[in-house]
Amino acid sequence: MSKLPNVTTSIFTVMSKMAAEYNAINLSQGFPNFPVDERLTDIIARLSKENVHQYTPMAGFPPLMNQIAKLVQSSYNRTIVPETEILVTAGATQGIFTTILALIKTGDEVVILDPSYDSYESPVLLCNAKPVRVALNDDYTPNWETIEKACSSKTKMIIINNPHNPTGKILTEADFLQLEKLLSKFPDILVLSDEVYEYITFEEKHISAHTKDFLLNRCIMVSSFGKSFHITGWKIGYTVAPEYLMKEIKKVHQFLVFSVNSISQAAISEYLDVVDVNLLGKFYQEKRDYFQKLLQNSRFELKPCEGTYFQVASYANISNDDDVTFCKKLITDHGVAAIPISTFYSDHKDQKLIRFCFAKDDFTLESAAKKLCNI
């Protein structure tokens, strides 16, 4: 008997596998294809010959935990205690999974805002809890009236993703005011804030849950070095939470992975002394702008992208196919892989929208755009 009977192979896996089979340009899965910063690779090359190959403490490599505390302080002016409020995780997804397993019980309800990352729902189901999927507005802003109606005495968590994957939307000050009102009405609700693209925003800087006093005692923040430093294969992330919640999260973490890759932790702890995370937004904004310029003569309609390294596009002027079918044909007939947005909705809402990843080198973007402009 399956515990996840409705869960199938991830759409990201499906599209990447098809891209490989048809030798298509892969703009589907969210991983960069350009070189990692040589300063980081030099650090890890040197560390590989040092004594950093055994278990680190369960919660994380102490120098890295101190660096995370410094990063949060410099980025958001929030003081956190490394020993009690930080956990280094095997990627942000493990942080999300571990948090939900630790804090959600049988019969609880968790509000998930659609379109949503596919790793939110499964851990809720594995807790014998109920995911309550609430759609964002068509412009991807939250409908707080609808969200409030979805909450009840059984609601124990709401998951927010800011900046938002797949849409590239960022939450506003008004959104946080509405969230504060919601939490005042439901004092038992925790917030899981997925902020893995926190440093990848453009015209407007993203507003972190770290900066909101009303959230600090009931919010778990999830971040990703893999996303920030384009080292997704390292699978290194971290969570920040108040001590009373972190105690519970650590209980699950110690039996799930115990401790995270030691050499990666040591390397990132050194790298944080030389890298400027504030330059990431400018770097990816140039990528976004270049990709948009390359597609300006295509028949795709590009939607606003405020953050992340994803561009949502409408193909309504090109085809009446549903978005999954269109993406498969995009691979087989045109040699470019993308992700259908309907797969991020519980009801598979199809608005003729697809997602491209522009975290690619210029040659890849140019080659893909050439094919896309010929459709």
UniProtKB/TrEMBL annotation:
GO terms for molecular function: kynurenine-oxoglutarate transaminase activity; methionine-oxo-acid transaminase activity; pyridoxal phosphate binding. Gene3D superfamilies: Aspartate Aminotransferase, domain 1, Type I PLP-dependent aspartate aminotransferase-like (Major domain). It comes from the Bacteria. Its cofactor is pyridoxal 5'-phosphate. GO terms for cellular component: cytoplasm. The keyword Cytoplasm does not apply. Keywords: Aminotransferase, Pyridoxal phosphate, Transferase. It is an enzyme of class 2 (transferase). Residues 24-372 form the Aminotransferase class I/classII large domain. The keyword Transferase applies. Belongs to the class-I pyridoxal-phosphate-dependent aminotransferase family. NCBIfam families: PRK09082.1. This is Methionine aminotransferase.
